[in-house]
Design a protein that fits this description.
It is built from 1 helix and 5 strands, in the order E-E-H-E-E-E. By secondary structure, it is mainly beta.
Length: 82
């Protein structure tokens, strides 16, 4: 995982036409499997497959001024400052 709980992040996928971005705080982290199949050798092999992190951010939209929560992938986020 790249980010941690309560970390402030820039949401790259939320760029507005005037160049502004939304900034949010991580309020949830979910790990998903990188591939699905039915056969696992043991419990460790099963748990080791959960490598893709998704982050739930809470933020105020800079255009509409509405409170939002949304899930994002790592490639949609950045630690850049405002």
């Amino acid at each position: 995982m790249t980010y941690r709980m309560k970390q402030n992040l820039k949401i790259l996928s939320s760029q507005k036409k005037d160049g502004r971005f939304n900034f949010g705080k991580v309020v949830g982290i979910e790990l998903t499997e990188d591939a699905y199949y039915l056969g696992y050798k043991d419990k460790k092999e099963f748990l080791d497959r959960f490598t893709i992190a998704k982050y739930k951010l809470a933020y105020i939209d800079c255009f509409t001024k509405r409170a939002c929560t949304e899930w994002f992938n790592e490639r949609e986020l950045s630690t850049e400052k405002k």
